[in-house]
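Example record used in the benchmark description.
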Amino acid sequence: MSKRVLIAIVVLGVSTLSLAQGASFSVGPATLSQASLIDCGAGSRTSALGRIRAEDGTQWTVPAPVNFDSARKAADLFNQCGAVRSSGTKALDLETVPLIDAGGDEEFVAYVFADNYFEFYVNGKLLAVDAVPFTPFNSSVIRFKARRPVTLAFMAVDWEENLGLGSERNRGQSHFPGDAGIVAVVQDAAGKTVSLTDASWRAQTFYVAPLADRACLVENGALRDSSACSTRGSNDGSGDAAAHWPLPANWMQPGFDDRAWPQAVEFSNDVVGVNGKPAYTNFTDIFDREGADAQFIWSSNLVLDNLVLLRGGFR
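Model output (structure tokens):
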């Protein structure tokens, strides 16, 4: 695997100029830079941010350089932290959901469930971010006005408790790599589905961890393949490595060329593990609608790829 030649200033994980692409590797845990973004009490995992220096000297924000503190929070479909426990879409009054202007006069509604966190862009404009970065699991609704053609983009993050190591406490282990997934449906004002998540979307990976052996990671052009890497947990992941790539500055813009990015990979509800999560199951009439069944999507590795950018859209 070739080393990356980087001529850039990296700020919060985003490079403004990169002459060549390639993974930047860090080893071990990050340093805490911000305590939990929210505190929801029992059942809420700590959604902290960290900073880590890679072996090549670059600095990275983990799990991702998010806009949570400054951006509008998406309205709730289901959110235990916000005491919104809707039994289904019949209880939803869309008129109470703020209408956000993305530059146009046609109205749309986006429904989103993410494991764990998302930031939602329409035609390059950040409209809203997930109200709950980690857990308990929630789902969101976003009303917006836009002009066709519409470019949709998500920053999707699988959060971590062990900052810089891509792992959490789970299944009796202190360093267990959690899984991810995001599903979304966009409808027009008449309730017709105009876009949904499926394999037609593009998905690119920007943070992979934990890597017990970095040689497992294959990079070939725009392909960043961690499928050969171990997903086993442990009780001591302090020596694990992580791979980082800089985010393109204009990745969410309509004019961004994503043709080299891999297509998104679809995952079933069972694989993502949404059974028993009312933030999803209470709204299957939206997400699993007959004739318009949205799919959970991610990069090719649902477990180790922790920061993924996704692009789709409609005309």
